């Protein structure tokens, strides 16, 4: 059974000191066995380092997004796109997955704590890079990465702690409100853009670029009403000026040569195409197929996550996003299809697979309970295919296209929004829509970006997060997660979010 993954812990002295300060301890012994010890800046724990090495480490940290837990689980397991059923004792894990599905998490949830620590460590690493005499291009990349990590903290938790490198270990990090963090992140991106490179479409755009900054700014302004709201659960006031910025930034991506790929799954492979704006170069996201494929398939998976039939039924049969049947031509992994896997499953030679636990033919069912699920229950999802997957995609033009359409709709231009959506649907081989409402726009956004690690953000913006299938705790204040208990104890500048 796959349990929560434990990541490699960097032992740079600065990080050890930072985490010591965050924990509020008073004694510290440095482990220098595999660290480079640098003379600290007077009055603080920080010592400037090699910005090239530090920046490489910051990019390497992005590999954490390849996991099916932590950030990805907080975005997907909590929504109507994904269900993490317990199958006998498999995927029990002390209820961590079920808590996400039912919205019954607490501030002691281990993955929630891990996500808080990961993201805040990564943001602080970027502060160190910026203070280590980087080149203009390196500083711009560090600002982008800091903005990206702080954006995640702001989106998940609302409040964002921030430690200056000049602060001593006993000084508490200041805490930005969600509104303050939004402004800080936007400023970082705007300052970074002039010194970032401009990158055209490529199978693996791993470096922070002008286009990646444009995309993140578009996402920020699309969600600005959420982040600036006095209550995380809304109501939200989407202003036309903000929607115009979304449209402008997406148009800039098109000017740079980005567009929609007729082969929807190209963006998640090593194949060339016009969609990939920014991706992690750190490893292959194998956990995202392992977590859903059955034990007896090739590759052998962990037989976990599935989607719900209600979500599956939102797709027309002709829609390429619904999936591509497996080739079953004898080549490696050709028994696995793309998109949604339902019904009888086959080997690479086209022979029906038998579930060795039940001795029955393996046919994935539409129905799937959260607990007590049999090994065949639930429609499985393959966005990254084991035969072609190459990187984890953070940003692609398909996501940008639906952001632009939504911005047009929210700014009162439903006609143009409908044209944008139908242009996308034509490329995806789906029939045109006759009209466009907020609900229809939400469905189209979900169809385009399912299982890409942004579902919760989309549901919150459309005021659907507290009402999805499987939600037991319907408190709308759960639009943000709680601040972990250890963080509250270590930093008295933090206060718990409402509802926890």
From TrEMBL:
Respond yes or no to whether keyword Cytoplasm is given for this record. no
Entry keyword set:
Signal
Q: Which Gene3D superfamilies does the entry link to?
A: 1.25.40.390
Where in the numbering of this chain does the SusD-like N-terminal domain appear? 75-222
Q: Which residues form the signal peptide?
A: 1-23
- GO CC aspect terms: cell outer membrane
Query: What is the top-level taxon of the source organism?
Result: Bacteria
Official protein name in the record: SusD family protein
